[in-house]
Amino acid sequence: MAVFVLDKQKQPLMPCSEKRARLLLQRGHAVVHKRYPLTLRLKDRIGGDTQPLRLGIDPGSKVTGLALMRESDGEQRHVLCLFELAHRGFQIRKALQQRAAFRRRRRSANLRYRAPRFNNRTKPKGWLAPSLQHRVDTVMAWVVRLRKLAPITALDQELVRFDTQKLENPEISGIEYQQGTLLGYEVREYLLEKWGRECAYCGDTETPLEIEHVVPRSRGGSNRVSNLTLSCHDCNTEKNRQSLADFFAASTGLRRRLKANGHTADARLDRVQRQLKQPLRDASAVNATRWALFNVLKATGLPVTVASGGRTKYNRQRLGIPKTHALDAACVGAFDTLNDWQVPTLTIKAMGRGSYQRTRLSKFGFPRGYLMRQKQVKGFQTGDMVKAIVPTGKKAGTHTGRVAVRKTGSFNIQTEQGAVQGISYKYCTVIQRGDGYGYHLTPTIHLIGGAEQAVA
Ligand SMILES: [Zn+2]
Known about the structure:
The chain is an alpha+beta fold.
């Protein structure tokens, strides 16, 4: 992973390699400015040549991928840094729901009747739920941060799942779809969204889906998207050249699978026929959060290029790149080749800054215990990144990670290898103050779906 470099006046220069960073530090030309992400500040240089850098963004509901890339000849991308930003929308939602429930109990506990109040609040236009607004805010916070560390000149955002303009009124225009072409991927994403990511016939979800002609080609069915659906391999082969009604009436295999998935044949057939006539609304392919993010990204003044998820997938499969959130971000938009993508990913986890409420509550909303008035203990605060050098005892050694403080001065440290408990404050030094995020460098690639792959 590349190391960020600032000049003497903290203006961003081109990121350098780890080897060069080591030399700069050894020779005393630079100091460490920030540990996460690693940033050096040159002691005597002011200004320098920079090249255009792109930041790719793949916004997700739980994790947003970010990829910083250098571009050469416009068509070649070189990956410098990969980030995965883990959101905490779920925790925010849970905390707010809990607060609402506690309030509701307090207000209604001693009140026999209260006239209903409703429809007496307005929400501003473009309002997002706090858990969603948080996603926009954290992504934006990191775009701003990275701009302070590197000379970013352009942004690429994945905005929609598929590009309706590429499909040109997908339901009615004739399309010679082909697997493996950009158009093929856009069609596939469209069908996945329209048919709810399951086999249209039997409802299987845990299986690869194939593009399937409802009216078979041999019976004069067209290649139009309105005649296409997605089915599992079994349904596809069993249906073969039968019409839809014949297939549902005759196939025993389908009946068995329908039963296993808890569907009845009549209802399912009805659903397929209804679905076929309904083009997918544009609105269901985009989501409000991504648009909100797009609008704030535009406000930075940098050129923002938007692309579809279909194109991301097309790029990824064309170049044989594994599926991770960060690498998806590197594959957003139009380009030829992607180089040097085998770099570790820095996982940035939104942790919050602790709670304002000092009373800990039981699950019934009664006080269970109280937090300290001050958040600081012996100069440390929960969330700080610390390095502890323990000279003797069971926990002897060096532990680096996020600290959780206790009033006694005996801290817990969350290291890359796991939690270490009961470390005295005397052995700790702060290497970076808490900023609401936890950091973790993954040397391996976390494939979406659980598998791991080592980085060469
Ligand atoms: Zn099926």
